Amino acid sequence: MDNLALMMGSINIYWHGVFMALAITLAIIVSFVLFSLFTKGRKNDLLNCILLSMPLGFILSRVMYWSCNAEEYASLGDHLNFIRGGYSLYGAILGVLLSAAVLKKLDSRFNAGAVLDCMATGAAIGIVLGRLSSYFSGDNIGLVIKSEKYHFWPLTVYSSQRGEWLIAVFNFEAFFSLLIFGVLLFFFAKNSNEKAGMKGRHGDIALLFLLMHGCSQGLFDSMHVDALLVPGNSFVRLQQILGAVCFTAVAVIFAIRSKKMKGFVWYQAVCPVVSLAAVGITLWMELDRISYNNFIRNYSVIFLSMLCAAISGIYIYRTTLNEKPVDVN
Fold first, then answer.
1. Residue 7 pairs with which residues in a beta bridge?
2. CA distance 118 to 185
3. For residues 66 and 86, is the Cβ–Cβ distance under 8 A?
4. Fewer Cβ within 10 Å of end Cβ, the chain: N or C?
5. Which helix (H) or strand (E) holds 3?
6. Residue 7 DSSP code
7. What's the CA gap between 187 and 185, in Å, rounded?
8. How far apart are CA 72 and CA 94, in angstroms?
9. For 9, left (φ over 0), alpha (ψ -120 to 50), or beta?
10. CA-CA distances (angstroms) from residue 310 to 125, 174, 266?
11. Is position 8 within any domain?
12. Is residue 170 one of the residues assigned to a domain?
């Protein structure tokens, strides 16, 4: 598909950029709507975090991408050529987290948890449009599919540059991000409505986002042929590692909180074990991925392991919910 949307003299506007701008706008709008409906925090808290996280996230996402693809940038001009793309989603997530931490340090009244909950939910729906933009930019794609019976949208996409049909991984990522948005919205309305009695804690929705998005990256980053590789190797995928760290850490956090509230129960130990097992199984499948002998089997196993990690994490989270409002101030 032609990426060029509009020419205005010497200025070119690309569909990929249009979709990304719409994705950011949608994420911001959803964040503000949720903040207005479900929290009693100061509206400036959310605005300040967005204003700080946008440049910080932009820089960190670029730096993270550059660190994995330094050979693509031969000069300072290449580094500053932002039109060509080259960004890491986890860099942007890190920018948001750092922004919230800085604002909390500067103002103790800053409700970091409530702000991050809204921004995480907004980010989930924004990612849907962001991933779909890959239809125009040609990134976030998978293996070449030679069998003509699979040459159809949305399973595969034709690359005019390569003259081949490839798995449209970005479509699957967009679909699962939409599911994540739905789950976050459900818990947001159910557990974070202070007018009805808050049963969760501020920051829970953001943790659930890290859990579920991390699980999705465990699968989809394995499918990318253009994944970011850890510098110095040709195998280890950065965002897959970061996803595993995120969903395992969140599972441990929820298990510890559940133990403090209910005392020790067997499922509190099972949840972190399931997460670690999912990491191990994925690593095993990744080692076998080198030969691509049976990628359908490998991706199916990774999918099931990530699904188990996500379900166990959500289950253990539900055991931490209070029946009475929690004072977070």
1. 12
2. 10
3. yes
4. C
5. none
6. E
7. 6
8. 23
9. left
10. 18, 17, 18
11. yes
12. yes
For residues 82 and 77, give the distance between their C-alpha atoms in angstroms, rounded to a whole number. Answer: 10
DSSP string for residues in 202-259: TTHHHHHHHHHHHHHHHHHHHH-SSPPBPTT-SS-BHHHHHHHHHHHHHHHHHHHHHH
Q: Which domain holds residue 112?
A: 4-138+146-318
Tell me if 301 is assigned to some domain. yes
Written as one string, the DSSP assignment of 299-314 is HHHHHHHHHHHHHHHH
Per-residue pLDDT of the chain (329 residues; tens, 9 = 90+): 567 667 777 777 878 888 999 999 999 999 999 998 877 778 789 999 999 999 999 989 988 888 887 666 655 555 555 555 678 899 999 999 999 999 999 999 999 999 999 999 999 999 999 999 998 888 889 888 888 888 988 899 988 777 889 999 999 999 999 999 999 999 888 775 555 444 778 899 999 999 999 999 999 998 888 888 887 776 788 999 999 999 999 999 999 999 998 888 888 999 999 999 999 998 888 877 655 567 778 888 999 999 999 999 999 998 888 645 444 44
Query: Treating both helix axes as pointing N-terminal to C-terminal, what angle do 204-223 and 266-289 enclose, rounded to 10 degrees?
Result: 20
Query: Where do runs of H (alpha helix) occur along the chain?
Result: 15-38, 43-68, 76-79, 89-106, 112-132, 134-137, 169-191, 204-223, 238-262, 266-289, 295-318
- Name beta bridge partners: 4: 14
Helix (H, G, I), strand (E, B) or coil at 271: helix
How far is residue 278's CA from residue 154's CA, in Å, rounded to a whole number? Answer: 28
Structural domain tally of the chain? 1
pTM of the model: 0.90
Dig out the tokens for 273 from the structure: 């074990």
Rg, Å, the chain Cα set: 21
Distance in Å from the first CA to the final CA of the chain:
51
Structural domain contains residue 326: no
Residue 174 burial class via C-beta count within 10 angstroms: exposed 0-12, middle 13-18, buried 19 and up: buried
